[in-house]
Queue: 2 jobs
Job 1
Amino acid sequence: MTKAMGRFAPRIHNDVDARSPKSVARVHSYTRPLRRDLSAAIASARVAIESLSPSVDVGRFAVKRSVGQPLVVEADVFMDGHDQLGVHLLWRAADEQTWNRVPMQHLGNDRWGATFQANRIGLHEFTVEAGLDRFASYREDLRKKQEAGVDISLDAQEARQWLRGCLKRACNRLGRSRALQQEAQRTLEVLQSAAAAETLAYLSSPAAQSLMEGTVAWEFMVRLPAVPLRVERRAASFAHWYELFPRSQSGSVRRHGNFDDVIERLPAVREMGFDVLYFPPIHPIGMTNRKGRNNSLVAQADEPGSPYAIGSEEGGHDAIHPQLGTLEDFRRLIAVARHHDIEIALDFAVQCSPDHPWLRAHPQWFAWRADGSIRYAENPPKKYEDIVGVDFYARIAEGGDAARTLWLALLDVVLFWVKEGVRTFRVDNPHTKPLPFWEWLIAQVQERYPEVIFLSEAFTRPKMMYRLAKLGFTQSYTYFTWREHKQELSDYLNEISCPPVSDFFRPNFFVNTPDINPRFLQVSGRAGFLIRAALASTMSAVWGMYSGFELCEASAVPGKEEYLDSEKYEIRAWDWRRPGNIVAEVTVLNRVRRENPAFHRQEGIRFHRADNDQILMYTRATPERDNVVLIVVSLDPFAEQGANMELPLWEFGLADDGVLQVEDLLHGYRFEWQGKNQHISLSPEHPYSIWRLSSRP
Amino acid sequence: MTKAMGRFAPRIHNDVDARSPKSVARVHSYTRPLRRDLSAAIASARVAIESLSPSVDVGRFAVKRSVGQPLVVEADVFMDGHDQLGVHLLWRAADEQTWNRVPMQHLGNDRWGATFQANRIGLHEFTVEAGLDRFASYREDLRKKQEAGVDISLDAQEARQWLRGCLKRACNRLGRSRALQQEAQRTLEVLQSAAAAETLAYLSSPAAQSLMEGTVAWEFMVRLPAVPLRVERRAASFAHWYELFPRSQSGSVRRHGNFDDVIERLPAVREMGFDVLYFPPIHPIGMTNRKGRNNSLVAQADEPGSPYAIGSEEGGHDAIHPQLGTLEDFRRLIAVARHHDIEIALDFAVQCSPDHPWLRAHPQWFAWRADGSIRYAENPPKKYEDIVGVDFYARIAEGGDAARTLWLALLDVVLFWVKEGVRTFRVDNPHTKPLPFWEWLIAQVQERYPEVIFLSEAFTRPKMMYRLAKLGFTQSYTYFTWREHKQELSDYLNEISCPPVSDFFRPNFFVNTPDINPRFLQVSGRAGFLIRAALASTMSAVWGMYSGFELCEASAVPGKEEYLDSEKYEIRAWDWRRPGNIVAEVTVLNRVRRENPAFHRQEGIRFHRADNDQILMYTRATPERDNVVLIVVSLDPFAEQGANMELPLWEFGLADDGVLQVEDLLHGYRFEWQGKNQHISLSPEHPYSIWRLSSRP
């Protein structure tokens, strides 16, 4: 359907038709039902379209999908009376002019649905268009009346009259295809002398259907404003992160590690199955108020300081700490990593050591105190003496452009590293920086490089965490680290794996970080590390670990969640083959994830009944259910636990005594389970099992 | 707070600030996050406001409340960092310029709440405004640091500096109140020499708080677009409807009843406790294709026809059927009814008999067929031979004004009866007329007469039924008539008695109508009538019956839901004291409703456990729980039913063995219940009980 030829010209009701998106709404654009004048009322939408899904805050933020992932769109569509509706799903990339159209099917109860799949990354949009389909209405009315034995000659005459009008207008229209014109002309001749039954037969023919679609627009056409859709690359939604401090990779506490040492570690990282290698900041480290070992306020002369105290006379956010290597060394690292199918992720931490070059070059970007000193970063009464924050709204009241130049400088920092080949950033504490800054920065970067991924480190309140995801962050750290019990784990997973949350929020389950040495792991021993690795890797499509986890490292500052002798403040050396390590188990977990598409998306997790609070049982499945994996994990690192469990045979269309084919994905053998009630027992040595299930032998 | 004196001028982010509402959005106004230029980004909302409630389709439609009913408003409000937020609820009537402000309280997890109560009927609006409260931030930072034993002298100096700047600007401002100026001046002098502790003490004082509220605006102020709120009179949400055919009120089938006969019936109607008396159409009835007894296609000469075939040579929608009386008689009826505290409700049925004067005067308002005949109303293959529908979009394509004049004529019909004192209309089949027509018509009427009530007779699919409520209908008929089982009744009640539905939809539970002689009642006998009356009157704040119900009339056309010898097609005479009637029981039910505020709103119903599928047990409560009523109904009209039931003692703060004071509202005596587990037994003779519960003797 292209142009109006029906009774009315199509009236597209589209309050925010933004083909070339320029404007930005700052808050939800609520609208109000008000007095309206009569003409506006007559011209307003006769067809109601409601409850479009998916949609994040009614289209204020983009829905997220990865490339190749089908998007199921649904909406309620209805109008007065008994006429037939036509409903289309419209979608396009933001840089395209024409819409792709997909007919929507009536699913019952006025709900309509259709599916499409975007095959490019970047911003897209979709919407729903509906109207009164006069052609289908004539056809259905005639059919119903004929079936009821009612005389349809007058109705058929009216249908022919209407059809002839449509086709004549179509024939007269310039720019119509020759073939269509001939078809219309032929049809006009046929209709001239058609009887009622012939008319109905013609209306019911595929030829008529396709001729109508090419020439006659629906009446009372309504289109919703488009909903934005961000299509991202697969690594946005399926990835394996590994974090390490480059300076700790020399194998000796006496030599500062460098990028070449990291290059030597790459094969081992890849063999474990990780594909994103993330470093804390790699920039020059300030001297003023440098932190010493275990976060002490005074550093000894030979202590390296915290890499989060960014900037010294050797440079700021776009420089490399000299002991790590040169920019050339960094480029070589990126290249070798790419060869190993590993992506390097950098840390973007918007803060400065007091020695950062920006303090002298751009004092207006910082908050100075009444006594002329600089304001340190603080969360009253806490104070971070080795860093100062920037003032995102510097001199705004005075009309100066300090804020503008600061925001641009920060964007330049990100773009600098993007140009050096970095496509993934972990962002430090985004919740303490203004929301509009992130929405602007991420949009700016992704407009130029839609493949760039931002991981939000927002260990903060739930609504702020979600808001950051809505306004652009690709992935987010989560509360997983502190969820240890059966009910809280399944509640949390159900929340983040279903709409509305799964439409904008992508969890990255880190089992530990340099800032979080979980209390559970401090006491659990090796079994606890196996449990947490199994949970994170099978519950979240993106998961990660901070190096040392695979060695079951758990030494803590007493009474705190901090690592003892943390790499944040000193150089460490590690024996990567340390006895008791779980490298082999992690390797298997990552292999199982890669080989089973059920793990490649966050949706599709379902919890099942196991009659022991220490045993968690869940399945992951692809939408087509051609890959269904059952995971059973014991939460007890100290004792054997058993449970009667209920296999979800009904989900396979099997009776309660049906037979399920099972493949043990950890050990490779196969067996059968008959009947839905089974028992399992898990020991601290082998606290989890993973099985692929199928109803077919 | 009135004007900006802070660091920044307040930036009100308000995409749809409609003080004098003119425009109307036709579909949801979705907005899109797009590339934005830097200045716009810096100026955009730093404070996030999300999930405002209540709100119907994100402000597209008005929230409904009755006058004097408190409105609880909540929203998620948060921003980056650790500063203090200020949050206000703003509300006003649509004809007011200035907002009423109510400080919102933090409820936890970034949720804020406040309550207001509109005391006028008509359109209102409300919204939420938030900003960074610099004053509170200084105060809290100083307090936390002092508590932690940190030196606050520099912080206090900065706070004083900021305060002095604010106050100086306030003093210089023209139009400031003299008292405020003096207070500011005094404060400036005090601050000049204040020490840190004094500064904190001053910041914490009520005097400072009130001085600041009058002089210093929040920074980064954000306001959501306003949400419309329709405040209606109490009868919109609490009423008792009674329907009768005036022509059947003479007491004899041989004399056509008239308005004077109705006047004689008024005391009886009022004594039963009804306050709305509704008539099917009272207009002249057409002769062409007039329907005979029991919907027969041909009427005898003396048959009166269906009052829904509106219009004859004696007039149309603004005329009165001559045999009912004159306009003078009607006015007298209205006046006497008012004296009895009864409101007369008319039927608004947009359809015409072929003899309606409009067909000759305005042929362009109707759809004519190819053979020159008129198109009768139809739902293919069904056809209604005695009525023709109007064409709401007549001649639109040709640019004519037929549609305009038709819509205005229909509005004039309603306004005509409004001017005659009618304030309540039952609208026939609104779902077969265009949605924009109703939104326009109701807005036009209520703009002039905000007290007018429209009841939607939309026995159609759920989403259409709800949409009609959203766009303005005050009340709606429901699916109650067909809900007979325990689970379906409680599911339905839970759906319609909670947000989002209860924010826009008001059920009117009719136990029967001239079109619905429920199958349950056709076989249930008197007990069934008692059951349905008890359910309707205790489940819905608005309920109604069609006369004859109280006589347990159930004669049906065999195999149909139609009454035999229906008053729709003939005059009937009734013995209002017929043996076996349930007038006394209905009277008591209506009295109990009136005396107990728990019945005066739809919200506040809760279902409780009774271990018999034939026994329904629920409570209704006021928000303050100062009136809690327990209703137990047997659904079985044929046999005695018993159930163990669980009294919700915990809702009264009582232990499981606590004592509840009970007053039997049907029979007036009092007793005590000890312990949560009790047994009840109900017989077909007494199929329900109603008790007022209290924990205090």
Note: Chain A has 15 helices and 28 strands.
Job 2
Amino acid sequence: MSHAYKDFEPNWLRESFSPTSYRSIFKWGAPDRIKAPKESLYKLLKETFQLTDEAFSDYTEELGLDEVKYELPIRLTTQQLGKFASIVGPDYIRTDCYARLSVAYGKTMYDILRLRHKIVENVPDAVLYPDTKEQIEEIVAYCAEEKIPVYVYGGGSSVTRGVECVKGGISLDMRLRFNKVVAFNEVDQTITVEAGMSGPKLEETLNNAVQNFGAKRAYTCGHFPQSFEHSSVGGWVVTRGAGQNSTYYGCISDIVLAQEYATPIGRIKTDTYPRKAAGPDLNQIMMGSEGTFGVLTHVTLKIFRHMPETVCRYSFMFRNWETAQSAAREMMQCEAGHPSVFRLSDPEETRIMLRLYGVDETPLMRLFQSRGFKEGEMCLYLGFTNGEKGFSKNCAHMMKKIAKQYGGVSLTGYVTKSWEKGRFDDPYLRDTLQDFGVVIDTMECSVNWSNMSRVHAEVRAFCKSRPNTICMTHMSHVYPQGANLYWIFITQCRDPEEFKAYHAGILSAIQKSGASMSHHHGIGKMFAPWLEGSLGRREYAVFKALKAYFDPDNIMNPGGTLGLDLPEEEKKFLREDIK
Amino acid sequence: MSHAYKDFEPNWLRESFSPTSYRSIFKWGAPDRIKAPKESLYKLLKETFQLTDEAFSDYTEELGLDEVKYELPIRLTTQQLGKFASIVGPDYIRTDCYARLSVAYGKTMYDILRLRHKIVENVPDAVLYPDTKEQIEEIVAYCAEEKIPVYVYGGGSSVTRGVECVKGGISLDMRLRFNKVVAFNEVDQTITVEAGMSGPKLEETLNNAVQNFGAKRAYTCGHFPQSFEHSSVGGWVVTRGAGQNSTYYGCISDIVLAQEYATPIGRIKTDTYPRKAAGPDLNQIMMGSEGTFGVLTHVTLKIFRHMPETVCRYSFMFRNWETAQSAAREMMQCEAGHPSVFRLSDPEETRIMLRLYGVDETPLMRLFQSRGFKEGEMCLYLGFTNGEKGFSKNCAHMMKKIAKQYGGVSLTGYVTKSWEKGRFDDPYLRDTLQDFGVVIDTMECSVNWSNMSRVHAEVRAFCKSRPNTICMTHMSHVYPQGANLYWIFITQCRDPEEFKAYHAGILSAIQKSGASMSHHHGIGKMFAPWLEGSLGRREYAVFKALKAYFDPDNIMNPGGTLGLDLPEEEKKFLREDIK
């Protein structure tokens, strides 16, 4: 991707790099895809960080172009390695430095900063590339016997240190072979896949169901997280993810119909009934276990009709955050069905989006001004609807009607279309900017409507307490009872530990203001120290009881995931009353 | 309620009875409400059972008019009784025969048959009427210390032996005092209530939210099980119930936002965030626990706008069960939003409904015949939509359009209205008919679309294997992936054990045909022997691990609930492969 800069084009790293370099591991997504900021964003960053073009002439951060090389002993015995080779086949086990590191980290900013600095702390002893459910069951059973830690690598887009192999052992890289369709059932509108199936492959498979399965029509999976292109179905499920269209299609925990796991105590399989009243919901017990109970093997998902022709797009500008929030709440409580994408930006995000889209120099800006809207107060809302034609149309009609009732100025569907173009692209920016010491990262949480203003204000205040920090907030994944609040912050930072401390501060601010720890990123090892303090001791101990049942020897994703094996002194309790 | 019979009016029991009689306990609902069958139903029954009017002149079954009296020792000590009295107040503990029996049974047919025959097997030693969450917490903590069994009585409409006090101890009767509103939050659209709140009181409270809470508008709870008038919020939640409008509003497991329990290990409280990605879902672990983990105290429910003016009603006649099923599936998969009530009757239920409504002697019948529809093949479908005006209208429009595509003949909204009139009334029939040895009972399960015909045929075949048995089936609580199938069977039976065996046979047929044990009635003690065999040994052991954590001494609803303390030899395994 090339951008024409009018005055000065920074020295963005555009050349290709070794496929076995550190950069090849920490870089987002496809190796040959690079995204540089638009000139408007570049100017904003220079302003924010009080930098000159000079600062963007030479890289100020490690680029990670070196070949991966480190000395970490393999602690598995020859016999153990032989056993694994006999299960997956000798071509599908690797113990070289590159393979081990390639699955050791996700895309948590802390991981990326460590990898740039060649800080290699935790890698598996061997990487296995399983082909079938039965192989995975055999691997887990053997690891249970031998007490070998088991990690799983799906899409590798974790932002919670979810996949980090803290205790060595093996990591199952699901991408290569464990990514097939197991069953397609058009009558029940379901598809069963292996957990390593990637998002794009699933969606393509469903979009082409007529050709692939002789189906009557095309389908969609309905699940499009920002990490879509580099995420796997298994990752969606075990972390309780949500896609950008979740307001209509539901979060993954609504979309999953059945699951199958290979656990240390054997196979755990749930059934595919649409609903049951037969004790606690086993599906909802397994989802969110983040690899600590067992390895997810097969997943049955609900699928939806692929009807891109019924999409109705719209966008609005609201006077301020309070008015916009009220409109958003009415949209979700009016019972006109739920729109699909629903994104409401706060004043800072709006200001930056207007600049990025160049709106600040157009007649549109004068229209806002004529209505008395002020930069720094205005809020941009965009969205679209899905579903059957009449449903989609009526839903869009109601969203527009409500927006107008709350004084929103219509910006047509153009803004939404612009957003759609870049919806899976933004993470590519991270690498380019970081070469110059600029970090972009995100945090998110779930909030009730009645607490929305407080959470927004308090978390934002913390983010901005770091000098020269951009903090953009938006609301998405919206419900009649509340919504997800999502922060994108941009700051200058090079030191992994300094970043980690700032990140922890944001998480604390989120919790202190009365929001959930995460709406859809999950907990992993990064947020784990806070989990018990967030849920309460007795409530959290339920997870421990489940862990003790499924994995008594703690071989599944050990080393802090969900805090299940975290020493007491490493846990954080933000509220006294919850101990 | 009085019915004019043209020829002969059976000697239906219409006189009042002692409020401390057995009948006062096993009778459905309000003491003064009695429902006798319409003449058309009476005629049908006579035909089916080959009976003359003579048989309905004298009661052939025990009427249960005697005063409750039995000799079952109270095993609690004076000190224990004193302690309970000190917690709830001396006026709110009872140990008399009537009080003890009044909460010992639900409305399971097996219970009713036993009570008619004065078979009193299991009663609590004392009945407590708690007033506050704190009282319940103190009671449970004390019972944990003293190892006293704890049962809970809410609405008393269990059809699974859910409330039966198999091990004595205490029962908490929630109806009297533990039925208050704790909080109403219009911004978040939620209400928090004590678990003993009855369905009608909740709905009335919400319908009058303007007067009660100064709210901006009226709300509805959206949850209307057939037992609505005699059910409690707590019962809905712990059994994972579903209301007749669940296709639109969701089952209770969708409607619950947060819960609080008093368990032997202390208070368990979930939070109110609209969605989370923070480990397994604790709400979905507690729901379905049926009193075996702890006593549900407070519940926060999502509420919905009360908009009766937007309801759109419709009904159709389809040519046959296969065509009707296909139409039903298309209705749920077309993504036009979900209708609220959705009821599709199979040919036998349709035939009987036509007779009951007297349609079989009208010109309408000739219309069906002119289309080539045949009695014994035709299927009646009725429903209505809820929601915002445009949503409701579009949804109804699509349901009608699809019905017509599948050859359905429109019967207007009249049939739906007739159904609505009697929707909570039918259980009253049970008592009246049983006085003459005729039993009406129901069974239900959850089925995927692709297995619907098989489940319907096989379960129906078993039901009809009992001579002279009416077996009406309908589909309701419908999803894109399948639906609930619901059987109403009418047969002659007097012996509780004979009935129990028949009932067990139906449950076996349901499972063998590949359906779930229950969609919304729950498991209780009645279905419990099959639960482990239905889920699988390893999957079921998850429930045991949870039980061991919450209630290590098995004081919560002990004696077979969910099969958690059932001896191995009492369990049933229908499938070899699941052991």
Note: The longest helix of chain B spans residues 389-405.
